[in-house]
Amino acid sequence: MKEVNPETFTTDISDMNKRKAFAILKDFVLGDECYQGEILAVCGLKRTGKTTLLKQLLCDIVAYTASCAFLEMQDSDTMKMLERRIEEEQAKGKTVIFINEITKVSDFINNSSVLADCFAKAGVRIIISGKDSLSVAFAEDYELYDRVRKVNTTYTSFAEYHTLFPSEDINDYIRYGGLFYKNEAEKSTIGYENILSYLYDAVTMNIANSLKNNADIDERDSAFKNINETELKRITEKAAELYSGSPDGEIITALTDKKDNAEQFARMLSSGKNADCYITPQMIKELEKWLKEIGFLSFIEKRTFANVSGVWKKLPPTYEYHIVQPAVRYSFLKKAAESEIERYQHLDKQRQKEMAETLNRNMLDEIVGQTVIFDVMSSLPDERYIVCKPEFMHENRLINGYDMLIYDRQENSYRYFLIRRKSDDYADNIEEITSVAESHFGECKSVCMLYAEKPPNGFAGRECYNISDFLIAVDKYGDMDKVMISLKKRGSN
C-alpha cells in the first residue's frame, strides 16, 4: 500500500458542484458514529464520481488534514498488513483514515470486520472506497452487517445532473446521464461501443473480481462460481440488452420469483451463437440481486386495473426493470432501433424516414417516462408516497391512460401525470379511469401533463409543467403539495 499526500491527491480537483452525498461524508468525519462500530463505504460503479467526492471532502476539511491519513491499497496487500498500518497511523494521532481501492485487498471480504470492531469503536473514522462495489456488498453480508454505512454514487438524478453539468435538458440527461465526463470531448465518446467497454470494466469485472476474492463462494454454492470472464461478459451484455427493453417501448416485467418467468428469462440469456453455458433460473436471480446491490439495476412498480365482464379489479403489483444509468439504456435501445430500421430498407425513402421517426419517438418517450417515474420515486419519502406506473385493461385491451400515479398515504389522495417529450396526445376515458383510481387511492387532486420541449396543445385546460422544472422541484421539496405550489408560483404552466 502507499500513503497519498492529500494535497497532491486534490491538485486536479475540478470546480464541479457538490453532490448530496457530500454532506453524508462530511457529517461522518465530524461525527461520532464510529464509536458504535460504524464505518463508511463510498461505493459506486466506474465513472460515477467516487474519487471526485473524496477529493472534495479532503479540500473541505483542510483544517482537519493533520488528523487524516489517506492510504491507497495495492493488489499484493492483505488485511493483516492494513491492520498494522492503521495501528501505526493511530500512534501518530490520526483519527480519520481514508482507504482507497480497498477491494484490491484479496481477503477484504472475509476479514473486513476488523475495521469496525477494532478501529471504529476505538474512535477511528474509517472511510473505504473501491471500484469493485460487489465486494463491499459481500463484506456487508458476511462480516460487517449493520456496521457499514454505504454511499452509492451510481445513481445521479436529473436534478443532481442539472447541478453537476451545465444542462437543463432531459434529452441530454437521457443520452449521457449516469456517467461523469470531464469535458465535451469526453462526453462525445459516449456511444454503444464505449458503453460495452464500460459495462465490461464496471459490471463484468466488478462481479468477476468480487467472486474471485470471496473465499466462501464455493461453500455458498454460487451458480456463477465456475463461469469464466468471457462467458460472464456475454451474460452481462445480454442481460443489459434485455433489461433495457425494446425500441417500441416494451419493457420486460420482473417476475423472476415465479419459476416459469425465471426460466423464460434464462432461455433468452442462453440464446445466441456465442453461448457457452446453460443459464439457470438460479443464475438469473443471483445476477439480479448483484446488479441491484451495485446500483446498476432497479425496478419500477406497476399497478394494473383490469375490467373483466364489467367489473374493475386491482391486480397484484408487478415491477418493470430499470437500468439506473440512462446513458447505458439509451445506448442499447438506440442500437436495437438501428437494427430494427434496417428491416425497412424495402420501403421508399419517405416511408423509411417516417418509420424511423416513429420508432425513435416511441423509444425516447418510454425512456423519459420511466426515468421520470424512477426519479420521483427516489426523491419522495416511501413512508408517505407510493409512486407507480398505472395501467388500465378493458377486456384485455390497454386503455390509453396516464404514465405516473403518485399516491399520498397521509392525505389519501393522488395525482395523475402524463409524461411526453413532443407528442400532444393525452389520455382518453379519463372519467372512467379516474373513477376506478379513486376507489383505491382516494380523491384525485390533479391531472397534469409533463412536457420536455414545448407546452402541449389541447390538453383540456389541465395543468402542464416542464419536466425539468418538475423534477428539480420534487428533488428540492420531497413534498408534492409544496412541489405543485412552487411550480404554480414559477409560472411553469
Word description of this protein:
By secondary structure, the chain is α/β, with parallel strands linked by helices. 45% of the residues lie in helices and 18% in strands. The protein has helices at residues 6-9, 21-30, 50-60, 79-91, 108-111, 113-119, 133-144, 158-164, 170-176, 184-188, 192-212, 229-244, 259-270, 281-293, 326-341, 349-379, 430-441, 467-477, 480-490; strands at 2-3, 39-43, 68-72, 96-100, 125-129, 148-152, 297-308, 311-314, 318-323, 385-394, 397-398, 404-408, 413-420, 443-451, 463-466. The strands form two sheets. Strands 7, 8, 9, 10, 11, 12, 13, 14 and 15 form a nine-stranded mixed sheet that branches. A hairpin with a 4-residue loop joins strand 12 and strand 13 (413-420). The longest helix has 31 residues, at 349-379.
